[in-house]
Design goal:
Elements lengths: L1 E6 L5 H5 L2 H8 L3 E6 H4 L8 E2 L9 E2 L1 H12 L7 E11 L2 H8 L3 E5 L5 E2 L1 H7 L2 E4 L9 H12 L35 E2 L2 E2 L2 H4 L3 H16 L1
Parallel strand pairs: 1-2, 1-6, 4-7, 5-6, 5-8
Antiparallel strand pairs: 3-4, 9-10
This protein binds adenine.
């Protein structure tokens, strides 16, 4: 799978790209690339934004700037990724959407900045708009990281243990429920005990207990 992120702050992603699970996914064949709007802007002086028509505070990321970045990235190679604008008003990210995205061979995430992004980006250039929650971030970069993280951990090889992402919170394996509680050593700490069933060695009882706990949390 290939994931491209368009941003005005590619350096934000340096730390993220160095994380173990991200490097693992890349070593297993995932591609993660970053594109800087400023490097492909058709405007002079690296301009990428402009004042909003109709007045108002702040600056708006221009449609021609985003279009130029996408064309430069894809036109020559004829790639046609699913283009996703990150915006607080988009479709809310959940595990079902993450599964949908991980099934795509190629996605592009457009981060916005300033007051917003010219609406024609959403209308004409993006296939989807995605939000990571009902709050406003200073830009789409953190949202892009959240999307990349939820998607990438579903790719083979990202997590150390193959089943880690299969049976996690909100997954199909848990029928969309939050995950069951986890415990590790010590079995008793300050009098706080690990449930007996987990120490029983009875796998079937453990499985049933976990399923019941996940259902309870969902309720
Ligand atoms: N950009 C700013 N806020 C955002 C949010 N909540 N989700 C996605 N992109 C955003």
């Amino acid at each position: 799978m290939r994931i491209d992120v368009f941003t005005l702050f590619p350096e934000w992603f340096e730390w993220f790209s160095g994380q173990h699970h991200v490097r693992n996914a890349i070593e297993h064949g995932a591609e993660l690339r970053f594109f800087h709007y400023r490097e492909t802007t058709p405007l002079t002086g690296g301009q990428v934004d402009d004042a909003p028509y109709g007045g108002g505070a702040g600056m708006v990321l221009r449609v021609d700037v985003v279009d130029a970045a996408l064309r430069r990235a894809y036109e020559a190679e004829g790639a046609s990724p699913r283009v996703i604008l990150l915006t607080p008003g988009g479709r809310r990210l959940d595990d079902a959407l993450a599964r949908e995205l991980v099934a795509e061979p190629h996605i592009s995430l457009l981060s916005g900045r300033y007051e917003g992004v010219d609406e024609r980006v959403r209308e004409r250039l993006a296939d989807d708009a995605v939000s990571i929650g009902p709050y406003v971030l200073s830009g789409g970069e953190l949202a892009a990281m959240v999307v990349v993280d939820t998607v990438i951990r579903k790719l083979p090889g990202a997590l150390g243990h193959a089943d880690s992402a299969v049976e996690e919170s909100f997954s199909e394996a848990l029928e969309g429920a939050p995950e069951y509680p986890h415990y590790t050593r010590p079995a008793v700490y300050r009098g706080w005990k690990v449930p007996d069933v987990l120490l029983s060695g009875d796998h079937e009882r453990v499985r049933r207990w976990r399923a019941e706990q996940a259902r309870r949390r969902a309720r």
